[in-house]
Write a structure and sequence with these properties.
A hairpin with a 4-residue loop joins strand 4 and strand 5. This protein is about 65% helix and about 10% strand. It has twelve helices and five strands. The chain is α+β, with helices and mostly antiparallel strands. The relative contact order is 0.06. The longest helix is centred in the middle third of the chain and has 83 residues. It has two domains: about 220 residues, no CATH class; about 140 residues, Histidine kinase-like ATPase, C-terminal domain (Heat Shock Protein 90, 2-Layer Sandwich).
Length: about 425
């Protein structure tokens, strides 16, 4: 019975180490529940196979099942999954051999015959395994500019497995020189197990804190982007107002000049003045909808589409977006249209259709964006399309911002790709 419990503990520890290794280095397209279910199933089979007490079978099974886990859930290329599985298998084997060699060298009477010795050996080897994997994770991850604040803390955390190995080594040395009394040996064994659990727990907490800190950094960047967008369009509205006044005055002057020149019958001057009056630089801002902020946004993207030869069509019903706060409106429509323009760019006869309306006899706002899209989108683990923008470190911010606004207004977001028409559809329902 004790042997089975020890095996369960050993496989549980190895499963936790694999989970931390994969989660730290790779991004999965599946939820944590699916990953946990597959990991549990694989390691349950490993445990059952280990009862056959065939060392070769155990090693091969460990390698194969780790490969399956990495390949299926983290979408690694098969060769890369085999590579990392081989690393894990090799380090696990080396850890057990190294610990066995250390104990045999310094403690000749450590024969792995008693339950206490088996527990010590298992805990010692797993802590050793964990320490090496911990170093390897940070070696593979490398040093990133946004993670410099963790460098010192990670070095300090490394003292925990190192200290644990020293403590286990000390316990073994004491047991070699003077046998522990029955109550003491049980307590020492429990302490050794707790040491391993503390190592795993501290590592997990550290990874969780890093993840939350990164999410906080991403959110700050997102909020800054939204703030910059609002300020930009507020400035645009102010500039448009001044420009409209200026254009109005210039037109009046040009009309007067035109009347004066008509008396002198100067064809060249008249033609020049007429050209000035018809110039795009002197045209008033196009009125696409009755909402000033949204109109400024749409005018900007209309010019973008014109420059990129994208047909831009809008149907904005009167009063449809009056209940949306300006900063939310800016964030929502700018990100929607940014994605649509990016998707439609460099496609012959591409187009973007934007429809915004309020459902009759209800407060629901329906926003529909249909745009050209050459390829079937690639989706992330949250089911959102992945951006192909060249700038690194900003991927996904636009979709996160859209999701944030939709959630704030108790709405619903649907996206799908239509293969027959090669178009991407975004349907948003908001309830202000």
């Amino acid at each position: 019975m004790g042997h089975i419990v020890l095996l369960l503990f050993s496989f549980f520890t190895e499963a936790v180490i694999l989970w931390q290794y994969a989660s730290s280095l790779f991004t999965s397209s599946y939820s944590s529940k699916i990953r946990l279910a597959l990991l549990s199933a694989l390691y349950t089979i490993l445990f059952l196979l280990s009862l056959l007490e065939q060392t070769g079978l155990n090693v091969v099974s460990f390698f194969v099942f780790n490969t399956v886990f990495l390949y299926m859930l983290f979408k690694l290329k098969l060769l890369l999954a085999l590579f990392h599985s081989a690393i894990l298998t090799a380090i696990m084997g080396i850890s057990e051999i190294a610990v066995l060699g250390i104990t045999s060298r310094f403690f000749p009477h450590f024969l792995l015959e008693t339950d206490a010795e088996l527990v010590f050996y298992t805990v010692f080897s797993k802590i050793f395994f964990f320490a090496v994997i911990y170093l390897l994770i940070h070696l593979f991850k490398g040093k990133k500019s946004n993670q410099e604040q963790y460098d010192h803390s990670e070095l300090l955390l490394m003292l925990i497995p190192v200290s644990s190995i020293f403590i286990i080594f000390t316990f073994a040395a004491i047991g070699e020189t003077s046998a522990f009394a029955p109550p003491i040996d049980f307590m020492v064994t429990i302490c050794a197990v707790f040491l391993l659990m503390v190592n795993l727990l501290v590592f997990g907490i550290n990874q969780y804190n890093q993840k939350k800190s990164q999410e906080y950094t991403d959110m700050q960047l997102l909020l800054q982007k939204e703030s910059d967008s609002v300020e930009y369009y507020e400035m645009m509205l102010s500039q448009n107002e001044h420009q409209s006044i200026l254009i109005h005055d210039i037109k009046k002057h040009l009309q007067s000049i035109k009347l004066l020149n008509e008396k002198n019958d100067s064809d060249k001057i008249n033609a020049y003045i007429q050209q000035l009056m018809e110039s795009s630089d002197l045209k008033e801002t196009v009125k696409i909808c009755d909402h000033e902020m949204l109109n400024a946004i749409l005018c900007r993207y209309q010019r973008q589409c014109s420059d990129k030869h994208i047909i831009f069509h809008t149907d904005i019903r009167s009063g449809a977006v009056q209940s949306i706060y300006p900063h939310d409106l800016t964030s929502l429509f700018c990100n929607l249209l940014d994605n649509a323009v990016e998707s439609s760019d460099n496609i012959p006869d591409s187009f973007i259709e934007l429809t915004v309306q309020r459902k009759e006899h209800s407060s629901f706002i329906v926003i529909i964006v249909i745009n050209s899209c050459r390829y079937t989108p690639v989706y992330d683990q949250d089911g959102l399309p992945v951006s192909h923008k060249p700038e690194t470190g900003r991927h996904g911010f636009g979709m996160k911002s859209i999701q944030k606004v939709v959630k704030q207004y108790h709405g619903n977001l649907q996206m799908y790709y239509e293969h027959d028409s090669a178009t991407f559809h975004t349907i948003i329902t908001l309830k202000p």
